[in-house]
Known about the structure:
Layout: H1 8-57, E1 58-60, E2 66-68, E3 84-90, E4 96-97, E5 117-123, E6 126-135, E7 143-150, H2 151-187, H3 189-203, H4 218-265, H5 269-297, E8 306-307, H6 308-322, E9 329-332, E10 339-340, H7 344-361, E11 365-373, E12 376-383, H8 413-423, E13 427-432, E14 438-445
Parallel strand pairs: 9-11
Antiparallel strand pairs: 1-2, 3-4, 3-7, 5-6, 6-7, 8-10, 11-12, 12-14, 13-14
Amino acid sequence: xxxxxxxxxxxxxxxxxxxxxxxxxxxxxxxxxxxxxxxxxxxxxxxxxxxxxxxxxxxxxxxxxxxxxxxxxxxxxxxxxxxxxxxxxxxxxxxxxxxxxxxxxxxxxxxxxxxxxxxxxxxxxxxxxxxxxxxxxxxxxxxxxxxxxxxxxxxxxxxxxxxxxxxxxxxxxxxxxxxxxxxxxxxxxxxxxxxxxxxxxxxxxxxxxxxxxxxxxxxxxxxxxxxxxxxxxxxxxxxxxxxxxxxxxxxxxxxxxxxxxxxxxxxxxxxxxxxxxxxxxxxxxxxxxxxxxxxxxxxxxxxxxxxxxxxxxxxxxxxxxxxxxxxxxxxxxxxxxxxxxxxxxxxxxxxxxxxxxxxxxxxxxxxxxxxxxxxxxxxxxxxxxxxxxxxxxxxxxxxxxxxxxxxxxxxxxxxxxxxxxxxxxxxxxxxxxxxxxxxxxxxxxxxxx
Length: 449
């Protein structure tokens, strides 16, 4: 699902994971602290109860020696080194202690007052929570009663709890991240549909974006559709204006040229040649500026797709008829049904100029083939004419350049073809053809899918 680190999905997932991780960490520390507090409260309550029980079970024999009437109710005070201890002291008498204490002893001076005392002290196995109480007797020295629990028991309980807590929180975090991924995927699904709709428009499968989108995206889709329609309408208007301008200017020029012919027939040769020459220059200027205006209007429009085989077959038949007197044959090789994201009129303009140029210079035939090379469609147009020197191949792409004034044309065709191809992300190049003539190669982006 995630392909790039700068994608929206990646950012949302990282943000989700970070916040979940922080929440789990803070929550885990809070739960662990609360559990430790409750655990210590439990130990305090137990020791307070046990010291009262110990005091109640303590008796004095006739010699003044303290002893227990019976064992404490909690059996944890019996096993050696169990971590639960009790001790009874009386000045001048033998200390009575729990079996768990063994030969170790607590400082009896800890319980030196009637009030219950509690503190962390050093016990047989490290830090120990100790409770102490002094019990006054009717005669003789008082009793010092001590009961204690090792801190290692608290630590062991906390460690086990923290392990279980960490495992539970880690599992919960994984579930939350998985849920976050599903939510992100579900939440961004409309953007995937939007991307596919835009891809359909760009590839020409659709002229506008269709589909149902959330309320937050619907205005964007409407604006994009409006922009597509506006661009198409703008190009159509530009082409219409260019066509009207061409029609409006060419008619007067045709009249001037006709008048020049009439003057030549009547003997006014110098005036006729002047008018004819200026008219031809005006015609070239008009063609040049109209070509530039048309190139500027021919921006790649979403939803426009042109079929390469269809355009070549149609143009091949047309130019075969056009050069029928010279018996020029156009051989269109079969190939894949490839399409380019280009307006059909513009593709026709690109190819017709190159096919016409090949037919003018060919000796007997022009051959055309096309194929796909990675993401580009390559169209190769070969002729069996005289070819072109290397140093002149780029010069012919300049507007108005003509290598032979006897050949018909304005010197604009190759320049227009290259300009249009570059507008659509492609290019036009000239090279030697295997047949010895000239090869014109057109490269245009291919339509995916």
